[in-house]
Amino acid sequence: MFKKIVSASSLFLFFSLSLFSQILPYQNPKLTAEERAKDLLGRLTLREKISQTMNNSPAIERLGIPATDWWNEALHGVARAGKATVFPQTIGLAATFDVDAVFNTYNMISDEARAKHHEFKRNNLFKRYQGLTFWTPNINILRDPRWGRGMETYGEDPFLTASMGVAVVRGLQGDGSQPYDKTHACAKHYAVHSGPEWSRHSFDAKNISQRDLWETYLPAFKALVTQAGVKEVMCAYNRFEGEPCCSSKQLLVDILRNKWGYDDLIVSDCGAIRDFYGKGKHETHSSAEAASADAVLSGTDLACDGSYAYLESAVSQGLISEADIDKSVLRLLRARIQLGMFDDDSLVSWSHIPYSVVESQEHVSQALEMARKSIVLLRNQNNILPLNRNLKKLAVIGPNAMDSVMLWANYNGIPSHSVTILDGIKSKLSPDRIIFEQGCGLVDKTYFVNVINNCQFEGVPGFKASFWNTRDFSGGVVATDQINKPLNYDGGGNTVFAPGVNLTEFSARFETVFTAPQSTEVLLSVSADDGYRIKIDDKEVLASWNVGKQSRKTYKLQTEKGRAYKIMLEYFQSDGNATLNFNIGYNKQIENEAIVEKIKDAEAIVFVGGISSALEGEEMGVDLPGFKKGDRTSIDLPKVQEDLLRLLKATGKPVILVLCNGNTMALPWQSKNLDGIVEAWYPGQQGGRAVADVLFGDYNPGARLPVTFYASVNDLPDFEDYSMTKGRTYRYFNGKPVYPFGYGLSYTTFKYGKAQLSSTALRLGDSLTVDIPVTNMGNRDGDEVVQLYIRNPRDKKGPIKSLRGFKRITVQKGETVQVKLALSPFAFEFFDPQSQTMKIMPGVYELQYGTSSAASDLKTIKVKID
């Protein structure tokens, strides 16, 4: 039987070769990408050119150009395209302070990306999340811990963010030694962007000082453009000084194109061009034509929405010329040629990466290692940790203890298997020595216990999902999925329910068979935007088949033990933001006395709490106490969890808190009263094993905080105020944090000797080497993160200190390691108030080195620049 092994691009190429009977210049791989793109550009009609300026670029068959969708995600693993290795969320990767390990991780991610792309291509699939252009990393500065997307960033420091971002780009794009780029990365969201989520489509980041712009908000972007050669930059939703970021002449033209010489792609955030003219949004432009023309003229080459379809009308109205559009199309075509998308796979070495690398054992092992490296030990009173393996009974309590989805955070792929924190602990102690009780929900006294584990469809656990790109289930199924978790879909951030599914005008069907484990009342809980209906054994029991937001409703099913119930949920979406939430289970009330009684024999308690990406994230529909649209209005641990922790502490047993979260949490009481605190972030698919390794001493924690842990939201300025000088981050905060930036404990102790400088008197433009002796004074091997800060004491309005160097090292017990930190001349570059530019200015600088940003953890040495 003839097998379909010829790719669509090869078919197109064959067609064009037959048509022209010779290789045309744009088809010739011996020519440069620029030469080929220019030739191809000259063969396109205006309408064809415009079609290529939108993220879902269609095929142009007459020229052998395959379709592509530029929108792909790889925040901490290939995302939204099915099976993939899920590494720790990026805030956790930042906590590793290990640039080489981050590079290796993203090299693995790009291996999976290439393997998945070519597998899609072999099946003639060119849809969203199936291409080679990945919209990561997010290098915005986490200036305020209330921002829901802070977990996607590399923390609050510009230098750490730049260092991590450069490693990510190099891991994704390759080292440039191959004829084709491995993938393309994207620096986002350019440039002054970090919440609030609820107003991002209308918010104007204004009155930004030149100091804050150049010292805080731009350094990471500059590094990725000028050092890493990032191939895409994404402009943000909000305005900057009155102009939408995607048409900002200052950001895009003056700085990015002219000052930094960037000539690769600028892409819009999804829907950002529509915000220019949308009612209730920026409303800076009168029409879609005016908005699209201005965006292209400002340098935004690709629109992630349909607005650029109006460019043809804009040309006819004289708002933009075809020659102006050509500049963007040339860059778009050149990028695809650089990736080998117009050439046969036999010429592209990356195409030979086997699909078996996807979630391979090597990659899963790396996910475990990065989870271990990301865990920060915050408190260890009386050396309660590591836990004694001879414990007769250990109580494990808390809402995140057995939640596998929490481990994945957001912008994630789907792993074949996840190790929950409870699973990890069970691998260390026999089940008869573990007492588990969830205890509470993340924010509620009543929590929902789902029974998804009792659901399967045709022998496969969970729900079978089928999707149509019509509202009425007509036409063919465009995507299927198998989901073994509660349904929690949210189209916020233009997130599709599955690859190939529309954002609007679609329908979905979810089917499963639930086998009742006991005779009891089971609740089917659902909310949606737009309509839904639920059938049990083909009988409709709950329905709201209407356009608009449907409030949560619950159906009570009285079950019989052992009986199987066929359940079908159908849903449709018309327009607007699609959401669907469905769960099956029962409510359980917190019973404090029962919890205390149940754990009476425990010798220690591990409480696994925090929050999850179901509460914090991108423009979500969450409005609960302490949360607003994915942002937080409070940075406290939810009250229900703190109340339970106080109760557990009152038992007199040692209590260890394991935090799972994507951002700062205020822990004033916990930091003084609990026996141990372990910051685990959202640690990825192997997170449970990594946490257990730390708890029981099989791994000595060495991560450090990439953010400041404040005592209260009262320590923070107004969320919408972007000024750094009002006490934001460790660089300007004069208060007393609970835990400072760069902080983290170990199961051993380190001593710093006196640093030696290659010179104490430098000339402008000189580099400097700092040699720091670090001794492991403890009785076990461990990792230390050596940190170097620079302070300009002459600048009274500048930062208190700024990270300029760091290195994670492993030191054997009793040994001393000489740590060399090389500082380029630009390490001494700070904002000059007189010239209003970044400059290296003569004078005496303070070099502060040690184990965190806290003054008490640092030693000081001075250097003079003449």
Could you please describe the fold and organization of this structure?
There is one protein chain. Among the domains are: 8-349, Alpha-Beta Barrel (TIM Barrel); 449-589, Jelly Rolls, CATH 2.60.120; 748-865, Immunoglobulin-like (Sandwich). 23% of the residues lie in helices and 24% in strands. The protein has 21 helices and 40 strands. The strands form ten sheets. Strands 13, 14, 15, 16, 18, 20, 21 and 23 form an eight-stranded antiparallel sheet that branches. Strands 9-29-28-25-10-11 form a six-stranded mixed sheet. Strands 12, 17, 19, 22 and 24 form a five-stranded antiparallel sheet that branches. The relative contact order is 0.11. Residues 1-21 have low confidence and may be disordered.
What labels would you give this structure?
40 strands, six-stranded mixed sheet, 21 helices, Immunoglobulin-like, alpha+beta, signal, Jelly Rolls, 866 residues, Glyco_hydro_3_N, disordered N terminus, alpha-L-arabinofuranosidase activity, Fn3-like
CATH topology of the domain at 8-349: TIM Barrel
Largest sheet: 8 strands, antiparallel
CATH class of the domain at 8-349: Alpha Beta
Radius of gyration: 28 Å
What is the average per-residue confidence, as pLDDT, rounded to a whole number? 94
Low-confidence parts lasting 5 or more residues at pLDDT below 50?
A: 1-21
Summarize the amount of helix as a percent range: 10-25%
Strand-pairing-aware structural class: alpha+beta
Q: Based on the coordinates given, report the CATH architecture of the domain at 8-349.
A: Alpha-Beta Barrel
Keywords: Hydrolase, Signal
Family: Belongs to the glycosyl hydrolase 3 family.
Domain PA14: 458-600
Pfam families: Fn3-like, Glyco_hydro_3, Glyco_hydro_3_C, PA14
